[in-house]
Every structure is written in structure tokens, then in C-alpha cells.
Design goal:
Oligomer: single chain
Structural class: alpha/beta
Largest sheet: 5 strands, parallel
Helix content: 25-40%
Bound molecules: 3-acetylpyridine adenine dinucleotide
Number of domains: 3
Number of helices: 20
CATH architecture of the largest domain: 3-Layer(bba) Sandwich
Length: about 650
């Protein structure tokens, strides 16, 4: 790493950094356990009031903080000036020791192993890279083609791996650009709810995020740049929609029917990877009369930036994350904003939601060795599984109708107070805003001023049932008509129909839709019996509610799929198909665990559940556990069919 500038630059930067992270850096560079004495132990992670971020100061005394900074200036300047050799990256034991010390909580072996890969102190691709290289060098990837459906976050990440490995692939993208959801969603204040230094590929971190929670344009730019940095853009066919994909038992190949404008075409592929996401097909509400509305109307994911909302009467139906994000800016310009809520969500205070990344922090992320890695590890620790115990049912808990356990109940009380504070004088809204399901029954929405927005004079929260839409506005069951100029449908996405509207036909001639109905399931969320050589990314039971980044989940899946592709080429397999029994056992466990978690609670009605009340979208596992579940491919879980053979094992 080239360290620019002089000691003044360094000292200035250190004013803005996270001091426990800096301590880890100093300990790494020096290799000296002097820095792990009790006097350098930071305060345990505790977010200051109204913040999702742990205190950056470590609550050190001035004297200790000065000693850490002075040591950092000395060792980093020595590295800069070539007076000290660059130390090796920490091994797992050292990472575990430094993390445990600096987060002031025990970080176990499994977590340390996962963090080694998430920081890239260890390259997770090493698990399959050499075998795949050998197979490619032996010519096994000739006449082999992988089709990736979708050029959003999952598709780009997979394409990156295939491109680097020299495996032929094509990405089919229905839009005219990459980015998927970050391309399509352009509503006001659209942004991410996970800190960006974690919400980014582990293999392509961005040290230059402008904020801790970036907004849509910056996120889209990141993914757009990734397409070039990964050198995959040339393999993407834009404006190309997959209509149908059918597996041919004789050739063991997929025939993929695609449509580009008026042109229909077929592609023959060895492997199909669905990277279509869970949130890509807007769901229109089943409210009668939508087409009768005389004003402008659109879905939140199809934002009409050309319509000026200033001075208009605007209705928003739906109060999920999209509505929460778009409402403050909408209400600030509208004459009136009417919010139609069926179910309230829990909203979490987030003082740092709009916090820009400080100049010194930017400098450190770019120029201080190991700092960006420890920063990412700390974000994963703070925004991940730390809350897991709060989502698991305590069988002895008395208030199980409202909460999962004592900690979960404490959150309910704290967030209820937050609601009351935010609503101010509109106390009559409090009851409407407190959910009847446990905290984490749905992913916590990161607050952007939701309750103070509802408290505005020009905003009304309406919870009575809607009867229908009429030309003038929204008619309620009691006959009242709320007249509006604009109707915004923030009503979510088709989430339970995973690969809808594509027809995916397996080896027995049945469609996925027919087999799944609204109870989609897949082995590890990735592989489906009867659908050989087909893999889902962000598939059934892989969404995360308690915290964490969906990029993390998808990287776990990409890693698993790359092992499948490696096995196919290395072992000359024509087909790899998950065994029905393995899938059944896995999904029985998924459902059993889901019933004990906050999002499986009977009071939760959400897009995570199907008509039978089964959780079909969310992972039942902690982040670390899912990493473990997907880390090693076990071929015993699969039927293997070798080239020219019937089943080989
Ligand atoms: O959609 P939703 P969203 N009549 O499905 C209501 C992600 N995301 O676009 O709860 C009346 O959450 C429905 O009511 P109910 C995130 O994962 C992330 O907001 O079903 N109302 C609900 O209030 C999120 O979970 C970010 O009772 C109707 C709303 O519409 C997912 O996207 C930002 C109705 C739909 O809420 C989807 O969020 C935005 C009807 N007929 C989104 N039908 C980040 O920050 C539906 N509703 C990263």
C-alpha cells in the first residue's frame, strides 16, 4: 500500500478514525501484545442514544487515546518512509484475538473464519480456484456456457467470478443497464439500510463511500463501475428478457428462450443461474378501481421523476420501507400527503443515517494498512449477529404474543418510546403506529424522520380499510372519499413467486411454478430437485431480517455455486442435481427453526410468508451459520451424471 502525505496528514486523519480499529492496526503492524493490555481495552460496543453506530472513541481516556494515536503516527510513518517492512496480514488466530479485544466481546472461531474471508485476509476463492484453473487449462470449459439471468448485484458478482476463471458465460438483463433494484428504484431518498462498508462486495470494497448509508445514485454508480472493473459488461445482453428455460434430459442442457425487442432467440446452456432477486417485479395492490383514478399514479419502483409533486395532494398506499424512505421528501413539497397504512412497521432510530464519512476516515480507509479490513469486520460484527439472541423465542417467555424474549421486549419498549417522542402532539397516532408483532418480525426500518413526518400538519395517517379507488381519489369502506391529485403505490413486490414470470421447466417437464406453488424451497436456498445444473441466488429462505447485508448472503451462494461448477468441469459431469431427500431434510429444518424466530411469529403477516403462514423468503440462520452452511459443497447431496453416462454416484 502506498501511503501518501506527511505526518500532519496522518495526524489530521487520526482525529476522525475509530480508535479501537486503530488499535488493531497498530497491534497488527507491530505484532506487539503490549497493545492488548487491559488499559487499552475499549468500552463494550454500545450505541449512543439515537445511533446505530457504536461510539468511535472506544471511551478511552485522553491519555490512552493519545498514546494509541502517537504509536499509529510512528509506525505508519515508518511504513510510509520505508523504515519498517510491511507486515503480513493477520492470520485467523490473530484476527480473532484482535477482534475480540477491540469489540470487547468474544469472537468465536467460526466468526473469525468468516471474517477472514469478508476482510479478504484470506481469499475464499482459494477453495476452488486451483481446481477450476486446471480444468479450464485442460480445455473442459470449451463448449461450456453459463447463462446468468439478471445483471443486478447477484448477477454481476457471479459474472465477476466466471470472468476471472475463464468460464464462458452470458448475462441476460431485461433492463438497458446493470444494477437491478438500484437501477430501477429512483424514488426520493432511496438508499441502503446497511452500512456501505459492509454493503459492498468483499472482493471489491469501495473506500470512498460518501456516507455511511449511501443513496441510490451512489449505489447504482458503484454497481455500474463494478461491471467495468470486473470486465463483464461485454458479456451482458441488455434489453433481453428470459421468457422460458427448459432442461433437456437427452443433452443435459438448458434451452433458454429470450426476447430482445421483437427478436426471439434460443440459447443452449450447460448451467443456468437465476440472479433475478426477490424484489424486482412490482406488486400492484388488489384494490378495485385502480384504473379509474383520474390523476397520475405509479408504483414506488417506477418513480415518475417528471411529475412535480409541489403543491399537490398526494396519497401513498403502503407503509413499508419504500414508503418510509420516500415520504419525508414528498411531504416536504406536497400540499397534503395522505398515508394509507394497513400494518405499521417497527422503525429504528438512526442518528448516523445521513452522516457523511469524515475526511480523516476516508483517508484512513484509503491509506492506512489493514484499517479498511478492520472497519468492515467491525461493521459486520456490529450490524450482524449481535442481535440474533433477541429474535429467538424463549419458550418460557410470558409475553409471547408481543415479543420473543426479555431482550426483544426491551426493544419493543424502547421503540414504543421512540414512536411517542417522534409523533409529538399527534398522540392519537401512537396506537396506530405500534405494531402488534414482535420487533424483528419484519426487518427494522432505518429511520429517516418517519414519525416527525407523520406528525406534520400536512400529513394524515389513515388506517381505515380502503374500499376502492375512484376517479377523484380513494374511497373508504364508510363511503368517505379522500380526493388526491397523485396516487403512489408503495405496495412492494411479487416476492413469493421467485422466478416469475419466467417459465422454468425441469427434467420432468414440470414448471418450477407448478412444483413450488407459493411454497418455494431450495437446498441451501440454491439448488432444486428435478432442476439439474440450475442455481438460484437470493432464492427461497435466504433473505435476512435481523441485520446484515444481502451482498454477504449472495456471496455465500456464489461461492457454493462456483464449487458446483468446479465439480462439473473437474469431474466431467453433465449433470449435478440435488437429491430430493437432502432438500426435504434441509427444508424441514428451515421451517422448524423459522417457527421459533420473530419473523415466523403468528402475529406477523408479511411478504416473507406464504398463504399457509410458512416463511418462504427469510433465512432461518444467523449470518455466520449461513456462511458455514454454504461454505463446503458436499457432493453426496447430489446426483452426479457423468458425460455420456447414467447417474455415476
Ligand atoms: O414493500 P413492502 P416495500 N392495500 O412489501 C402495503 C426492501 N427495501 O417496497 O404490511 C393496502 O415492505 C403493505 O401492507 P401490509 C426491503 O427488504 C429496502 O416498502 O402487507 N396496503 C405494506 O405496508 C423491504 O422489505 C430498502 O399490511 C397494501 C406495503 O404495502 C422490501 O424492499 C428500501 C396492499 C408494502 O411494503 C419491500 O419494501 C426499500 C393493499 N392491497 C425497500 N398491498 C432499503 O433501505 C400491500 N400493501 C435497503
Amino acid at each position: 500500500m502506498n501511503i501518501p502525505g506527511n505526518n500532519t496528514d496522518l495526524r489530521n486523519a487520526l482525529e476522525d478514525v475509530n480508535l479501537p480499529n486503530l488499535l488493531a492496526v497498530v497491534a497488527c503492524i507491530t505484532g506487539d501484545d503490549y497493545w492488548l493490555q487491559d488499559k487499552f481495552a475499549p468500552a463494550p460496543i454500545e450505541a449512543p442514544d439515537g445511533s446505530m453506530f457504536p461510539d468511535d472513541s472506544g471511551r478511552y481516556s485522553d491519555e490512552i487515546a493519545a498514546e494509541i494515536k502517537a504509536a499509529a503516527v510512528q509506525v505508519i510513518s515508518e511504513l510510509r518512509d520505508g523504515r519498517r517492512p510491511m507486515p503480513p496480514a493477520p492470520d485467523q488466530a490473530r484476527l480473532q484475538q484482535l477482534m475480540s479485544f477491540t469489540v470487547a466481546e468474544p469472537v468465536d472461531d467460526g466468526y473469525a473464519a468468516m471474517l477472514m474471508e469478508e476482510t479478504r485476509f484470506r481469499d475464499r476463492d482459494d477453495q476452488w480456484k486451483a481446481q477450476l484453473q486446471q480444468a479450464v487449462a485442460a480445455g473442459r470449459a470449451e463448449d461450456f456456457l453459463v447463462v446468468i439471468i439478471g445483471a443486478g448485484m447477484s448477477g454481476l458478482g457471479t459474472a465477476a467470478k466466471l470472468q476471472a476463471a475463464g468460464i464462458p458465460y452470458v448475462v441476460l438483463e431485461k433492463n438497458d443497464a446493470v444494477g437491478g433494484t438500484w437501477y430501477e428504484n429512483t424514488y426520493p431518498d432511496c438508499g441502503v439500510d446497511t452500512p456501505n462498508h459492509y454493503y459492498s462486495y468483499s472482493f471489491n470494497r469501495n473506500p470512498n463511500w460518501s456516507g455511511y448509508f449511501s443513496k441510490r445514485d451512489e449505489l447504482f454508480a458503484y454497481f455500474d463501475n463494478c461491471a467495468d472493473e470486473f470486465d463483464v459488461r461485454g458479456n451482458i445482453r441488455f434489453n433481453t428478457e428470459v421468457r422460458r428455460a427448459a432442461y433437456d434430459n437427452k443433452t443435459n442442457k438448458w434451452t433458454v428462450d429470450i426476447q430482445t425487442g421483437d427478436d426471439a432467440e434460443q440459447i443452449s446452456a450447460n448451467v443456468v443461474i437465476s440472479a433475478v432477486g426477490q424484489l424486482n417485479r412490482p406488486s400492484m395492490p388488489d384494490i378495485p378501481g385502480l384504473q379509474d383514478f383520474a390523476g397520475e399514479s405509479w408504483h414506488s419502483a417506477r418513480w415518475r421523476g417528471d411529475v412535480d409533486l409541489s403543491g399537490k395532494r398526494v396519497a401513498v398506499i403502503g407503509t413499508g420501507c419504500s414508503c418510509v424512505q420516500l415520504l419525508p421528501k414528498t411531504a416536504a413539497v406536497a400540499d397534503r400527503a395522505l398515508v394509507f397504512q394497513r400494518t405499521p412497521h417497527w422503525v429504528s432510530p438512526a442518528r448516523d443515517y445521513y452522516r457523511p464519512v469524515e475526511q480523516g476516515q476516508l483517508w484512513a480507509l484509503n491509506h492506512i494498512p489493514f484499517y479498511a479490513e478492520f472497519h468492515r469486520a467491525r461493521m459486520i460484527w456490529s450490524f450482524g449477529d449481535r442481535v440474533w439472541p433477541a429474535v429467538v423465542a424463549d419458550p418460557d417467555w410470558q409475553q409471547s404474543g408481543l415479543s420473543m424474549n426479555e431482550t426483544n421486549h426491551g426493544m419493543r419498549e424502547a421503540l414504543t418510546e421512540f414512536i411517542k417522542e417522534g409523533l409529538g402532539e399527534k398522540t392519537h397516532y401512537v396506537e396506530k403506529c405500534v405494531p402488534d408483532f414482535p420487533v424483528w418480525g419484519k426487518r427494522l426500518i432505518v429511520d429517516n424522520g418517519w414519525y416527525p413526518t407523520l406528525a406534520r400538519d400536512n400529513v394524515d395517517l389513515i388506517t381505515d380499510p380502503i374500499k376502492r379507488i375512484v376517479a377523484a381519489g380513494i374511497e373508504m369502506q364508510d363511503g368517505t372519499v379522500h380526493e388526491v391529485d397523485v396516487l403512489i403505490l408503495a405496495t412492494g413486490f411479487h416476492t413469493n413467486q421467485f422466478l416469475w414470470p419466467m417459465d422454468i421447466i425441469g427434467k420432468n417437464g414440470q414448471t418450477l411454478e407448478a412444483i413450488w406453488g407459493d411454497a418455494a424451497n431450495a437446498y441451501k436456498g440454491v439448488s432444486v430437485p428435478d432442476f439439474p445444473n440450475m442455481y438460484c441466488l437470493y432464492g427461497p429462505n435466504t433473505n435476512i431480517v435481523h441485520g446484515g447485508s444481502i451482498i454477504y448472503q449472495v456471496e455465500c451462494q456464489i461461492h457454493y455455486v462456483m464449487q458446483c461448477i468446479t465439480a462439473m468441469l473437474e469431474k466431467r459431469l453433465d449433470a449435478l442435481e440435488v437429491r430430493a431427500e437432502a432438500n426435504k431434510t434441509y427444508n424441514e429444518e428451515v421451517q422448524a427453526i423459522s417457527r421459533t424466530l420473530a419473523w415466523g411469529h403468528p402475529n406477523v403477516e408479511s411478504w416473507y410468508k406464504n398463504s399457509a403462514g410458512q416463511v418462504v423468503n427469510n433465512s432461518p440462520f444467523s449470518l455466520q451459520k449461513y456462511w458455514q452452511v454454504t461454505h463446503e459443497l458436499d457432493l453426496a447431496d447430489y446426483h452426479l451424471q457423468q458425460a455420456g453416462d447414467n447417474e455415476a454416484a
